[in-house]
């Protein structure tokens, strides 16, 4: 168990500082697309996921240290997911200090669409 927590702590120490990278501009929130055709909010959410969640929830949202998130939107709505991200719970650390409200909402909305 201590080895597992050390791995999680190391992953967070590496990933959390990266969350501050990039733009926090609100432009594009209403449906702008990037070069690949994905919506800007989806691209931002995927980047946030990669920077903050992938170490525990896996590259394909398949789970690992944390639970599988592939169909999390079928189990929880966006408000509950946002609360979980902010507050943490059980083994999950809280991210309220490392993610802005906008980032939490972007990530929670994206995860809630996974059904």
From TrEMBL:
<keyword id="KW-0479">Metal-binding</keyword>
<keyword id="KW-0249">Electron transport</keyword>
<keyword id="KW-0813">Transport</keyword>
<protein>
    <submittedName>
        <fullName>C-type cytochrome</fullName>
    </submittedName>
</protein>
<feature type="domain" description="Cytochrome c">
    <location>
        <begin position="40"/>
        <end position="115"/>
    </location>
</feature>
<dbReference type="InterPro" id="IPR009056">
    <property type="entry name" value="Cyt_c-like_dom"/>
</dbReference>
<keyword id="KW-0408">Iron</keyword>
<feature type="signal peptide">
    <location>
        <begin position="1"/>
        <end position="26"/>
    </location>
</feature>
<dbReference type="InterPro" id="IPR012218">
    <property type="entry name" value="Cyt_c_BACSU-c550-type"/>
</dbReference>
<keyword id="KW-0732">Signal</keyword>
<dbReference type="InterPro" id="IPR008168">
    <property type="entry name" value="Cyt_C_IC"/>
</dbReference>
<dbReference type="Pfam" id="PF13442">
    <property type="entry name" value="Cytochrome_CBB3"/>
</dbReference>
<keyword id="KW-0349">Heme</keyword>
<dbReference type="InterPro" id="IPR036909">
    <property type="entry name" value="Cyt_c-like_dom_sf"/>
</dbReference>
<dbReference type="InterPro" id="IPR051811">
    <property type="entry name" value="Cytochrome_c550/c551-like"/>
</dbReference>
């Amino acid at each position: 168990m201590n080895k597992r927590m050390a791995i999680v702590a190391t992953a967070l120490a590496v990933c959390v500082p990266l969350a501050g990278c990039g733009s926090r501009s609100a432009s594009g929130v209403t449906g702008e697309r990037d070069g690949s055709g994905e919506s800007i909010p989806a691209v931002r959410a995927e980047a946030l996921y990669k920077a903050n969640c992938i170490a525990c929830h896996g590259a394909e949202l398949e789970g690992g240290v944390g639970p599988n998130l592939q169909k999390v939107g079928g189990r929880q709505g966006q408000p509950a997911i946002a609360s979980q991200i902010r507050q943490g719970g059980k083994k999950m650390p809280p991210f309220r200090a490392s993610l802005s409200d906008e980032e939490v909402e972007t990530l929670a909305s994206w995860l809630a669409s996974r059904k």
